[in-house]
Amino acid sequence: MIDQFALSQAFDLLFSSYAPWLWVIPGLLIGLVFGSIPGLQISMAMAVFLPVTFGMDFLQAMLFLTSIFTGGAYGGGVTAILMNIPGSSSSIATAFDGYPMARQGKHNEALGIGLAASVVGAFVGYILLMLLIQPLAAFVLKIGPLEMVVVVLWGLTLIATLNDSRMSKGLLAGFFGLMLSQIGMSTTGVMRTQVGMPYLIDGLPVVPAMIGIFAASELLRLRGETYLVRDETQRDISFGRILKGAGETFKYPGVLIRGSLLGAVIGAIPGVGSSVANLVSYGEAKRSSKTPDRFGKGAPEGVVAAESANSSSEGGSMTALLALGIPGGAATAVLLAAFSFHNIIGGPSFIRNQTDIVYSIILGNLGQVLLLAVLGLLSLRLLGLVVRVPLSYLVPSVLAMCAWGGYGITGTIAGPLTVAGFAALGWLMRRHDYPVAATVIGLLLGRMMEGELVRTMQISRGNPLGYMLERPIALVLFAVMLLVLVGAPLLRAYRKHRSARA
Amino acid sequence: MTGKPVTARFQATHAALIGIILAVSGFITWSAVNARASMDNLIVVAPVAAVIALICVVLVVAPMLKARVTEAETEATPDSAIWGDILLLAGFALFCYALTHIGFDLATFLFVWGGVVMSGGKGWWQPPLFAAVFTVLLVYGFGSLFPYPMLTLVL
């Protein structure tokens, strides 16, 4: 599986000079800053700093850009934990339990868990990438729209488990999100309503909607309270407690490994990637937990599942880029641009002819993950200070940043207005115990599902079931999904019934 | 749960939420059907609209079938808190709209000042000073990272 000669050359490329590492720490810091400010996207940071790589050699450029990617993925999780603002769609599930933990005064532990799970997840993702890049590439090539439909459906099933009170409320919230995803031009080019705003031709912008419904609505609810953490004695930033949290991650090895594996595999699917991986991983952790009721109320396993999956999906997303030259998302599209800057074309010939460079990139990323652990620990003391800011100052400041973030993503008034509209919707939903996360999931996956469903119907000539029988990967994915969704609860109920009788 | 029995009622804000969901879903469905009533265009809209309508009926009818509920089950949030939230929400919406109309700097300064006062910030000089410093930091820090032009009035 591993070309030993190329691997030794990769070590030589990386460690015979300090030059490849020169830009890694600045890259990680840029990623942490962009990831932790609502509205600044990782892909935006990579695009802004892409011209800087023109004067670098290829390996140096790749390590710089991927370090922004790595730092940004973790930075998004920090704001999800401390302020309920997921920096990107890949951190949605981190907020589900991370923020309740912070509100209970366990912000140090939550940040530590997030950091450790991210580091382990990213590590597993890149190790898998190194071992399995060729078979994974073959797998990615066999993924068609039907397989994507199954994966997206898997992500959508999380909606049914996100219920603050009644199942009907969770379903209504999720289906409303799906409905909102249908605004703007359809995937087949039919112009539906744009709600009078030409900016919405491509649909509602998901990240501003997410900022509005999660953050702004929560901030409105916090108005009138004094601090994020009510108990004054809990407001300190303790290095020891962060480390204790990091250690606590390893109390859940099953959740950690499953999250990392799910993230790596789902992350390899172009266009789906980390947005779905963290949701599927969280859903599976909740479903398989002996105490699912704790989820959403500050369960450490929830943070472990979400962070391990979104970090390992980074390695997965590199599969299609390196092996096939296909970018799986905005961030990898910028990496592809860096490829062309340096006259390199990704794909099978790249892997075959420049295996040493491919291994260098992967090994370099493993090194970045270790550096992230150190930098993350150092920066958490600074980022965690937010719990000491009085809410009377924090609420309007972060609300203003939310609106600015909406503008930063769209570049038009549609961004801030989407934030405001979804803040109002989120406020109403939270008042009546509707899970706002379900609406975001529906909005995020609705358009993806529509496109893949239409393509499946076209390819199958209107017979998707017959078509499924010809697609072994889709069949296996579907069977696994059914087994997990229906089989596991049935088995648990059966065991419970038997033990009750005994 | 020992409150005295009262007649079941559907809270006004909950009714407003369900009304908004139904109205928005109805409008999107109408717009999609009008644009093209083909399967590829309605593959998500039509089934989702049907499910939303069904769930809304369940959510509206279920409390009515529960003839009486106890007072302890009804909402306990005081009206003043709701109106405070609505006022801040309206201020936030106005701020979002004003960003590109009166300038990011002035809109942010006014919103943060007003927001701090509404959220219980004490003193007559601290809120405007904080708002001014925060605005300058935001314009020269956050704003410089924007890849788009940003309208400002003063800075």
Automatic annotation (TrEMBL), chain A:
InterPro entries on file: DUF112_TM
Organism, as annotated: Salipiger pallidus
Q: Which Pfam families match?
A: TctA
Q: Does Transmembrane helix show up as a keyword for this record?
A: yes
Write down what this protein is called: C4-dicarboxylate ABC transporter permease
Q: Does the keyword Transmembrane apply?
A: yes
**Keyword set for this entry?**
Membrane, Transmembrane, Transmembrane helix
**Which intervals hold domain DUF112?**
22-440
Please give the start and end residues of each transmembrane region: 20-40, 111-133, 139-159, 171-191, 197-220, 321-345, 357-378, 385-407, 473-491
Automatic annotation (TrEMBL), chain B:
Stretches that traverse the bilayer: 12-30, 42-65, 86-116, 128-148
Which parts of the sequence belong to the DUF1468 domain?
18-149
| Pfam families, per the entry | TctB
UniProt KW keywords: Membrane, Transmembrane, Transmembrane helix
Name of the protein in question: DUF1468 domain-containing protein
